[in-house]
Amino acid sequence: RPCRALPLTCRVERTFTAIKPDAVNRGLIGEIITRFERKGYKLVGLKLVRPTQPLAETHYAELASKPFYPSLVQFLCSGPVVAMCWEGKDVVRTARKMLGATNPLESDPSTIRGAYAIDVGRNVVHSSDAVSTAEREIALWFRPEELVEWAPTSLQWIYE
Ligand code: UDP
């Protein structure tokens, strides 16, 4: 649903981003949120969740045939996850670039995974890999009323 109060450019896309239990335990919540805030993206959903096994299984359903799937699901359920919905121009693709490669050792050190992680199974963050995936994941993790329509006063200084 387009928000008519906002410039078109700021409401074009949303993504689902999650701070995984390793990062929550390591005290990296603030560092990770700060990167998205400073980029200029708008936070429209935020909550701390202890995922159930069915939620984790559904979230990673596309990977169900992979050998690492059981440990991945177990890991996601092993502690709190910060579930976020970020909004802005090209946010799905750009968030993936900000995360870096899936394997942190292959990630550029300027990325979140490159800066804060070493092992692939402890790579601190998730972000949707496509617009269609984002729609599915946002609907999985958030109820519609948990997503907030608002207009940051900074928008005119971020979008031309
Ligand atoms: N993963 C893993 N071992 C692998 C590949 C992936 O433990 O060999 C984990 C890793 O934490 C990754 C998640 O599974 O973030 C989902 O994998 P995907 O290929 O979707 O990577 P992502 O989209 O998270 O970069």
UniProtKB/TrEMBL annotation:
Record: active site: H126 (pros-phosphohistidine intermediate)
Gene Ontology biological-process entries: CTP biosynthetic process; GTP biosynthetic process; UTP biosynthetic process
Domain of life from the UniProt record: Eukaryota
EC number, UniProt record: 2.7.4.6
Entry keyword set: Kinase, Transferase
Every Nucleoside diphosphate kinase-like domain range: 12-149
Keyword Protein transport: no
An annotated Gene Ontology molecular function: nucleoside diphosphate kinase activity
Required co-factors: Mg(2+)
Sequence positions that bind ATP: K20, F68, R96, T102, R113, N123
Similarity section: Belongs to the NDK family.
Protein name (database record): nucleoside-diphosphate kinase
